[in-house]
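To: structure desk
From: M.T.
Subject: fold request, one chain
Message: Could you run this one when you get a chance? Sequence is below, nothing fancy, just the single chain.
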Amino acid sequence: MEDKKIILSGIQATGDLHLGHYIGVLKRFVEMQEKYNCYYMVANLHALTVRRDPEELRENAYKLLASYIAAGLDPEKSTIFLQSQVHEHAELGWVLDCYTYMGELNRMTQFKDKSAKHADNINAGLFTYPALMAGDILLYQTDLVPTGEDQKQHVELTRDLAERFNKLYGDTFKIPEPFIEKVGARIMGLQDPTSKMSKSSTIPNDTIMLIDTPDEIMKKVKKAVTDSEGIVKFDVANKPGVSNLMTIYSIIKGISIEDVEKEFDGKGYGDFKTAVGEAIVKELEPFQTKYNELINNKEYLESIYTEGSRKAAEKASKTLRDVYDKLGLI
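Reply: Done. Structure tokens follow.
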């Protein structure tokens, strides 16, 4: 596996996942494990920037592990681990804090967004977590970082920090590249198709959760915002709701947007929404079956993260030892 390019990615352990995660992240993870040497983490340290109930945070880690495996991640092909079980993440995060400038962190748009949402808890971790994220990436000498446009800024900061450290202390970190998917990386809300689908959305019927029942999925899709034109045509600027449903359908069915337009030429939104809902239900059925088995088998999930965290630490410790040696830390 070592001759393959290395990929590092993860999802915060903050609750149930939604369709946007499945299409834009999990399906890509599964595809990438066939071609790359992949490290996939449960990012539970990052989750601490917001106050969490301890039992809920613990349970969310299990849910995320179950979701990874139910979606098709294979522990024999990918290293699946808990961030909190690899102490090198926190240690390199602190080192990189000391090489990250306040001005760089001030420019992070996600800090501004999250500060507005959590005005009563604008903590230092929320401000500096891009340095921890940089540590996550650099620990594994990562080549490619799967990222949406909203996280690209953090990868750019990671590159800057790696180059800064390398210039001061010699070749230490590989300079990672952002790996941005051209299609399907952003699945939008069903009620607000101008905003990314989010598990924190408070708008009813806006988000399809991966554990929603078939009836719940069909109900949400049928209530999805469209327009008065009645034509299934891809036009994000003028038909964001229809375009979003078309994107979902095209990715699930493995066909082009042009093919979607042809399939529903002359048909109304009723037929279109029914087809989209049925496609989602069928796509998620095997995931849900596997997830329900896994979430009730904590012993198996523990064996996965224990072995995965051991393998991750083996790789991460080599990088951290090199960093400590160059800094003069005993």
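Reply (cont.): The CA atoms of residues 249 and 275 lie 8 Å apart. Let me know if you need anything else for the meeting.
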